[in-house]
Amino acid sequence: MSRSWPAFVAKEGIDKVPIVGYISQHIGCIYAMRAIKETSKSAAVQLKDRIAAKAIDPTSSVRPMLVFPEGTTTNGRYLCKFKTGAFLAGAPVRPVVMH
To answer: With a threshold of 0.85, does the pTM exceed it?
Structure first.
């Protein structure tokens, strides 16, 4: 898979979904179980470390991270409150809108 494909944070169990799970495992996604605070905190630390590593050295082998700051999907009518995990590294953020 292309090294330029971004990894992302996904709920635990996505790695078991056919095709999507295979891809998410091979691009180095971070998995978190929202109901268990320890896994959410661990995912936030991993996310912060990866974003910081890529910000320090953009040529590093660390994949870029695609982050959905709402931490969930919506019905498309409004934005949800952003979670802090995407911003903890203090690195520049490139906003993208998907329709």
So the answer is: no
Question: Which pairs count as long-range contacts for 61-69, CB under 8 Å and 24+ apart, including other chains?
Answer: 61/3, 63/3, 63/5, 63/6, 63/7, 63/27, 63/28, 64/4, 64/6, 64/7, 65/6, 65/7, 65/8, 65/9, 66/6, 66/7, 66/8, 67/8, 67/9, 68/8, 68/9
pLDDT digits (tens, 9 = 90+) for 24-75: 999 989 988 877 877 778 888 888 898 888 888 888 888 888 887 776 667 6
